[in-house]
């Protein structure tokens, strides 16, 4: 410092200005003493270099960080980049990729797709794009497989299945239950634009059962067909309020009548009876049947079945349909149709007989045929006049007015009329009877009894319950479901529970089975045998005097038949039927005295 002061004074003495002298001396010292002052200046690092904490020197920026230079320190590499050594800025990962954290040093560390994207085929793709790329080929493949499966299924389906499918399609068009008219099978899918609230679903099995009936297949299911008829009967007519039933149900009735005619008509000529009968439908609940398109006949013409086979099918299948019971009008039309066919057959038979008589030897041929029929009849009959012995003990039974009991015991009693027997029915029964101990078909009478029972069931039960209530002490318990009521009654000074149990109306099948219990008696004369005893809990065999139901006699009579004494008798172990035997009178169905049943159980 002293040397510098001396040099400055010397320069001033030579005439230099003070500032210049001082400046020149300082510059000379800086130039000659660089090692002395150089470390006094802080380090200013270039990009990619990192200054030490004392700012004395710069070092390369470490890997995983980037250095912007100057006096700034290093910064950790962000998550979407990588930073090798001497990096002045972070290097971005390739499109869509990021690292799994900060401070990564090389591009291979960029392995994670950002923003919910998916790593696919060396790149990050949006999930929507991936789904489209994946699902579209799969959907196309499935569609192709479905079409191929459908093609091979159709090719491999049997001829019967194809016929059934074709019949279902034709029958739906005939009955106006197509998709276009708002009807779908339960296996079909509705159109996206369809009003689902207005769609009507039909069970496929029921539809196929109707198609099998149209094809005259004996394996058709009667239960499913009854369900099919019931579903069409429930449809309301939306286009007109003047008709009780919809066009679908009336089309069904018309089709069933045509089907019956095909089975009964000996020459399969459908032009006359049904057409003539349809001309008299005006004003009935099925009047709209006249307006149906009769060109859409879908019933199979049974040209490959003879008359006997067709009649056997009719006899085995058609009477079992529940629609005859549910729709009395339809049953009457069937009866008229059968009568017309019989009249036609009679005319044809008479014409054929006259033609035979005109042929050579025709009279002799008819005489021989009559003689053969007589021999067969005599072989089957125990006497020369089986009807006289049979009808006197069985057919005419209690029909004598003098023998009518004070209390009705039969359903065909004039005071009951649950079964109505006309003179035509008696004539038909006499004509059908060929031998003794023969049970004649009684489907019509069973149907009448079942219909009457269904009508009076609820009223009958209410009347019996009202009759029992005055004898109770006031405690009445209505059980869940309403099928059972418990009363508190007094018996011989002691109170106990009495349970009134309702039962369903006896089915037609059960009624037909019960007819076997009233088999015609043998032709031998003698007093009628006593009926077997019936247990107290045997509802089907209980005599008519029991509280288990006087059946379909009028409700007031049913109420009078039940009293406290009858209730007490229910506790007995068995009962004996009256001495007279009403089973000895035709029709046998009139002896079914308990189609409507109710049990009174005492402890």
Topology:
Blueprint: H1 2-13, H2 18-32, H3 34-37, E1 49-51, E2 58-60, E3 65-66, E4 75-76, E5 81-82, E6 91-92, E7 97-98, E8 112-113, E9 118-120, E10 123-125, H4 127-156, H5 159-174, E11 183-185, E12 200-202, H6 204-214, H7 222-233, H8 247-264, H9 273-278, H10 307-317, H11 323-326, H12 328-358, H13 362-380, H14 386-395, H15 423-432, H16 443-468, E13 472-478, E14 484-491, E15 494-502, H17 508-514, E16 534-535, H18 555-560, H19 564-569, E17 574-575, E18 598-602
Parallel strand pairs: 11-12
Antiparallel strand pairs: 1-2, 3-4, 5-6, 7-8, 9-10, 13-14, 14-15, 15-18, 16-17
Helix pairs in contact: 1-2, 5-6, 6-7, 8-10, 8-12, 12-13
Transmembrane segments: 125-145
InterPro entries: Growth_fac_rcpt_cys_sf
Biased composition (Pro residues): 520-530
Structure description:
The protein has 603 residues and is of the alpha+beta class. It has four domains: 39 residues; 77 residues, no CATH class; 189 residues, no CATH class; 207 residues, no CATH class. The chain is 42% helix and 10% strand. Strands 13-14-15-18 form a four-stranded antiparallel sheet, covered by helices on one side. It has a two-stranded antiparallel ribbon with strand order 1-2. The protein has a two-stranded antiparallel ribbon with strand order 3-4. Helix 5 crosses helix 6, helix 6 crosses helix 7 and helix 8 packs parallel to helix 12. The longest helix is centred in the middle third of the chain and has 31 residues. The radius of gyration is 52 Å and the shape is elongated.
